[in-house]
Design goal:
This protein is 37% helix and 20% strand. It is of the alpha/beta class and 415 residues long. The structure holds iron/sulfur cluster.
């Protein structure tokens, strides 16, 4: 039987909810509306379920009880990943971390976590992507290239679409500005409103822009033409509803976020500006919010005797470097492909449990591997979009594989 329905794509933090698919016998044949990343993602399901202890294929019960034994024996296990897990799975992981006195972290500790934490502490004004579509007249993409990382960002929400108050859409009514160290695809779309700055030049550009906003001569050590910064300031001052989309390029370039906070304050003295962090994974923002609600922190925590400790020493990078963790449960992530080899290799010295829909270097080196369902394709739940909006997603096809929520529940029950 052919099926046609609307689904949510969990291929990136946009969680597009208008996806149509055709599926037959649990295989997705056609995907409509999604971008190329989403099409590939929606076809990722398979009906195989793999459970392994060491090199040996085992059944589900053996894999789960081996995972439980590892966590029971560990004094300080690391629980890490969860960027593509549902909110329900993330909440279970937090409970599991409490129960096992674990260190709990996610990729936001070396990505946009500090910015999301500031957002949850109300350090600046933010808004939803629906607000952007309906109201925004000026958007800035700073250190981010959504055309490649969130391919439908510009078409669905921020630049091309028509919104309630933006009937004509894109360049007739919206000004899109890119500030970056290279001419990305997004920067090309922004045409004359692309401001190319040298690597590490963001803080100075911010100061120059703040000066320009109050009518002073903007100066940078790299001699960015003051006239262009003054022109930019004039556009920003006229914004009725402005949005700054901040990516890793900007956050990595700043020593701390203070210059960005100052810029948001300066922009809001003259106009109306919001900031949205360009969160990449489908539910990293959810993890940050769920942990924040529970502990007041968005990542890098250690539970101990009913208390919670927080600091960079509890991030995956620092705890592997210092070898303070003695086991690891890695959910939906492959540290071997993302962290420097010198740090990831320390995982080889401790028992690792890998929950992942895909074979990765981490799963191949794991003591226990549980091949989980692909969220949004083979399992459902709720996730938090990059702008904080909660989205329900449902499976497109059935699978024998367990969701990571189901695996975590089994581990919790057996502990
Ligand atoms: Fe999926 Fe992201 Fe593409 Fe939307 S932009 S279809 S959520 S990958």
């Amino acid at each position: 039987r052919m099926e046609k329905n609307y689904y949510v794509c969990t291929g990136c933090g946009m969680l597009c909810d208008d996806i149509e698919v055709e599926a037959e016998k649990n295989i997705v044949n056609k995907v409509y509306t999604a971008c190329r990343v989403g099409v590939a993602h929606m076809k990722e399901g398979t009906d195989n379920a793999v459970f392994r202890v060491g090199d040996k294929p085992v059944d589900e019960a053996t894999a789960v009880s081996e995972a439980v034994a590892i966590l029971k024996n560990a004094k300080n296990p690391l629980i890490f990943g969860l960027g593509t897990s549902s909110n329900e799975a993330q909440k279970l992981a937090i409970e599991l971390a409490k129960k096992t006195s674990a260190t709990l972290d996610d990729p936001s500790s070396f990505r946009l976590g500090s910015l999301v934490e500031a957002l949850l502490q109300n350090r600046f004004k933010t808004c939803t992507l629906d607000d952007v579509r309906n109201k925004a007249d000026v958007t800035i993409y700073w250190g981010t290239n959504p055309s490649d990382s969130h391919p439908r960002h510009l078409s669905k929400h921020s630049y091309f679409p028509r919104g309630k108050e933006k009937q004509r859409g894109w360049e007739e009514e919206r000004t899109a500005i890119a500030i970056d160290v290279r001419k990305s695809h997004t920067a090309k779309i922004c045409g004359n409103y692309f401001f190319e700055i040298p690597p590490g030049g963001d803080a100075e550009f911010i100061d120059a822009l703040i000066a320009a906003l109050s009518g002073k001569l903007p100066k940078t050590s790299y001699n960015f033409p003051p006239k262009r910064i003054l022109e930019l300031a004039n556009i920003l001052k006229g914004a009725k509803f402005g949005v700054v989309f901040v990516g890793l390029g900007l956050v990595y370039s700043l020593e701390n976020l203070e210059p960005l906070f100052r810029l948001m304050d300066a922009l809001n003295e003259k106009a109306n500006f919001h900031l949205i962090p360009m969160v990449g994974y489908s539910n990293t923002r959810g993890f940050n919010e769920n942990l924040f609600e529970e502990t007041g922190y968005v990542n890098s925590v250690k539970f101990e005797d009913g208390a919670v400790k927080h600091g960079p020493e509890y991030s995956i990078v620092e705890s592997l470097k210092a070898k303070t963790v003695d086991a690891a449960l890695i959910i939906g992530y492959d540290p071997f492909s993302s962290l420097p080899r010198s740090i990831a290799k320390n995982l080889l010295e401790i028992p690792v449990i890998s929950l992942n829909p895909f074979e990765t270097l981490t799963s191949r080196n794991a003591k226990v591997y549980i091949n989980t369902a692909v969220g949004g394709v083979e399992s459902g739940g709720t996730a938090t979009r990059m702008d904080g909006v909660k989205v329900d997603f449902k499976p497109v096809v059935e699978t024998k594989r367990l969701s990571d929520e189901a695996v975590l529940k089994k581990i919790m029950e057996a502990l």
